[in-house]
Amino acid sequence: MISVDQALDKVLGRVDVLDTEESPILGCLGQVLAEDVYSPIDIPPLDNSAMDGFAVRSEDTRGASPQSPRSLRVIGTSIPGSICSHQVGPGTAVRIMTGAPVPQGADSVVRFEDMDKQRREETSSEIGILTEVQVGTDIRRAGEDVTRGTIILPGGTVVRPPVVGVLASLGRATVTVIRRPVVTILTTGDELVDVGQPLPPGKIYNSNAYSIAALVLRCGGIPRMLGVALDSKELLAGRLGGGLDADILITTGGVSLGDYDVVKDVVAKQGEIVFWRVRLKPGKPLVFGILRVGESGHIPYFGLPGNPVSSMVTFELFVRPAILKMAGRENLARPVIRAVVGEPIVNEDGRRIFARAVVEKRDGQYFARLTGPQGSGILTSMALANGLVIVPEDKARVEAGEVVQVMMMDWGEEVAGLISD
Question: Minimal CA–CA distance to 313: which of 354, 347, 369?
Answer without folding.
Answer: 354
